[in-house]
Amino acid sequence: MRKKKTKTSKKKASRRAAPASRKTKAARTSRKSAAAAERPLPATQRPAPVIAPVLPPHRPPAAKRQSKAPPAILIMGPTASGKTALAVELVKQLPCEIISVDSAQLYKGMNVGTGKPGPEVLSRAPHHLLDIIEPHESYSAARFRDDALTLMREITERERIPLLVGGTMLYFKALIEGLSELPEADPVIRLVIDTMAEQEGWPAVHAKLGRVDPETAARLDPNDAQRIQRAMEVYSITNKPMSELLRKPRYVYFPYTAFKIALVPGDREVLHERIARRFQAMLDAGLVAELKGLREEYGLEAGMPSMRCVGYRQAWEHLEGRLGADALREEGIAATRQLAKRQLTWLRAMDGVTEFDCLADDLPQMVLEYLRHELEALVVAGEA
Q: What is the pLDDT of residues 167-178, one digit of tens each?
C-alpha cells in the first residue's frame, strides 16, 4: 500500500528556525541546499534508470509450469498395444485408480469381444466405468466427460491419481479439449437415416453427406456408418453442417496437469500380428456365442451403437449367415487393423504427448521412471 506524504507546518518550521539570528549566512545556504536535495527533481531532470541486462527466460518443465493443478495420467494407444497390462503394473507402484476410456467396455455382458479385464485382473486393479450400461442403451462423449470428471475429482480428493486408460480417442479429446454445442441424438431421425442406408447403402448416404457437409464427408470413410449417421443427423436437426458447428469456440474445463502417454508400435507389422492373435483368441473364447446370448436377452438390432463395435459387427453378419467362419476371422482382423490405424492417426494429431514403444520389453519400467520424474517435478513446483 502506498503511504501518503505529509507537509511540515509553518509553525513547526519557524520554531526550528527560531535561532536564525545566531546562524551564519553559510549555514542558511547549507540548509536551503539540503532542503532542495530532499525535493524530487522534475521528471526531465531525473537521471535515466539503471536497467539490468535482459537474460533469456528460464523455461522449467511443463509440470513445473502447471504446478497448481493436480496430476492425471492418460495411457492412450491402439488396440493390442498393451494398455491394460501397463496400467495394472503402474497401480502396483503408484497411488493410482484406473478409469476405463473404452466405448465398448461400458456395456454389460460384452466381455469377450471387447477384451474387458477379467475378475482376476480387476481384483488387483479395479477399473471405473466398466459395465455401466446395457447393450441396447446409448452413451455419448459428453456423458463420458461428465462421468470421468466426477470420478477424477473423487479420486483426487482421496489423495490418489486418476489413471485414464483406453483407446477411444474421441473420449480423450472430449475430456481434455471440451465439446462443441451439438444437438442430442434424435431416435426418429436416426431411424430415417438407417432406413436410407439399408435401401441404398452407406456409401450412398456418405455421398449425400458430401453435398451438405463436404468437409466432414472428406474425412470419413464411406462405410463409417456411425459417424456418417451422426453428421447427417446433426445437419437434419440444425440445418447446419457439423463441421461449421465444430469450429465454434468452446469453454474447456480440465483442472488437471495431464501426463499424456502414447503407446506406439516401433514395428507396425508386429502390432498386426498381435491383432490377429487377439481376434483369434476372442473367437476361441466364444465371441459368437456371447453375441448370440446378448441378442436373445436384449433384443438387439444391428444398428445399435453396441453392435457397431469391431468384432460384434462381423459376428452379427456371421449369425445372419452372410459371413462364414473364415470370412468372419478375416474381416474381424481387417476391421481391427483399420481401428488401430485410426487410433494412431488421432494420437499423431494430439499435442503434448510422450511416446513409448509398446513393443519394448522394458515398457513398464520406462513409463514408471518417466512418471516418477514428472510427478516429483510437479510436487517440487507446488512447494515453490
A: 999 999 999 998
Distance CA 135, CA 304 (A): 8
Q: Which residues pair with 76 in a beta bridge?
A: 166, 262
Query: Any bridge partners for residue 101, and if so which?
Result: 166
Domain boundary among 200, 217, 246: 246
Check whether residue 324 and residue 352 sit in a common domain. yes
C-alpha–C-alpha distance, residues 237 and 3, integer Å: 63
Closest-CA residue to 255 (of 152, 373, 163, 371)? 152
Indicate the burial class of 177 (C-beta count within 10 angstroms; 0-12, 13-18, 19 or more).
middle
Q: Which residues pair with 64 in a beta bridge?
A: none
Can you give the C-alpha Rg of the chain in angstroms?
A: 33
| Cα 291 to Cα 113: distance, rounded to the nearest angstrom | 9
More confident residue, 89 or 226: 89
Secondary structure (DSSP) of 67-136: TTSPEEEEEE--TTS-HHHHHHHHHHHS-EEEEEE-TTTTBTT--TTTT---HHHHHHS-EESSS-B-TT
Is pTM beyond 0.85? Reply is no
Provide the residue range defining the domain that includes 217: 187-246
Phi-psi region of 111 (alpha: psi -120 to 50; beta: other; left: phi over 0): alpha
For residue 45, the 8-state DSSP code is G
Residues 6+ apart with CB under 8 A from 16: none
How far is the CA of 113 from the CAs of 15, 251, 313, 325, in angstroms? 100, 36, 10, 16
357: CATH: 3.40.50.300
Measure the CA–CA gap between 108 and 151, rounded to whole angstroms: 19
Q: Which residues contact 245 (CB under 8 A, 6 or more apart)?
A: 180, 181, 182, 234, 238
Q: Among the three residues 246, 274, 291, which one is the final residue of a domain in this structure?
A: 246
